[in-house]
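TA notes, week 10

Several of you asked for a full example with nothing omitted. So below is the full record: structure tokens for the whole chain, then the designed sequence directly under it. When grading your own attempts, check the secondary structure regions first.
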């Protein structure tokens, strides 16, 4: 009985300590906050539940923690300093204060983390599409720290202008452009209304125009398009064209199995001079 009584007293003491404890924690939209008390990790539903940011919380019980006040900047900075920093560029907002971002240097991230991919960065309070930021990684989650003042703001304007003009990623040519910027631009373009259809049509039209042909319509077939087009003398053709580099999958005429030796532009000339 004495051991059971000691255990109950110990549990009661831990609960009292838990309710008396104020703790600092980040909180993402719809997420939970956590802290460690007496060697045990507790996860709490924040109150109010719609809070998103850095805060000081106090446990009401083992499941709910009340927001006491929002954290000061120095507290946030002190917390983030425990984790390694990375330079990323913002792509687009996922929800609330969470944005998708991509590394400025793939080589740096791969060397330090072993793999490179777009990542969600939480509690982004400033910055916008294409902007360079500094983020901290705690081994599980990426946290926004600040906008990187060393970022090239000229290229941000150029990227925004190219996106507005619906320039396809394959035609993107900017001074100082890196493979990482190209990947970032592609991520943003994929989430821009009307961009994908317009850019695909523009690629096909340009390739045919350079060869002397004219696009009528095209259908998406997964890895390739079925392209309906006409030659300069009005002859209708239907060809299967690979999406990645516009090489010919099937020309629609007999090329003795050498269809893939040509791309859409050169195919126009082959058909017109056959």
């Amino acid at each position: 009985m004495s051991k059971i009584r000691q255990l109950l007293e110990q549990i009661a003491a831990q609960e009292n300590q838990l309710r008396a404890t104020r703790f600092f924690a980040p909180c993402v939209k719809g997420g939970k906050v956590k802290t460690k008390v007496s060697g045990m990790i507790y996860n709490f539903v924040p109150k109010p539940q719609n809070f998103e940011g850095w805060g000081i919380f106090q446990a009401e019980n083992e499941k709910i923690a009340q927001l006491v006040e929002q954290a000061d900047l120095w507290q946030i900075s002190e917390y983030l300093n425990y984790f390694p920093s990375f330079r990323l560029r913002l792509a687009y907002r996922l929800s609330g204060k969470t944005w998708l971002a991509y590394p400025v240097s793939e080589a740096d991230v791969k060397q330090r983390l072993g793999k490179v991919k777009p990542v969600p960065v939480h509690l982004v309070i400033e910055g916008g599409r294409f902007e360079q930021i500094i983020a901290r990684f705690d081994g599980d989650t990426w946290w926004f720290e600040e906008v990187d003042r060393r970022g090239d703001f000229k290229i941000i304007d150029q990227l925004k202008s190219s996106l507005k003009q619906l320039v396809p990623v394959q035609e993107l040519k900017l001074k100082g452009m890196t493979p990482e910027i190209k990947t970032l631009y592609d991520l943003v373009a994929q989430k821009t209304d009307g961009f994908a259809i317009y850019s695909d049509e523009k690629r096909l039209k340009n390739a045919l125009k350079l060869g002397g042909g004219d696009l009528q319509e095209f259908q998406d077939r997964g890895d390739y398009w079925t392209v309906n087009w006409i030659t300069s003398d009005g002859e209708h053709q239907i060809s299967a064209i690979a999406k990645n580099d516009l090489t010919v999958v099937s020309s629609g005429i007999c090329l003795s199995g050498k269809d893939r030796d040509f791309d859409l532009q050169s195919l126009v000339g082959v058909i017109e001079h056959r």
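The two ends are 99 Å apart (CA to CA). Use that as a sanity check on your answer.
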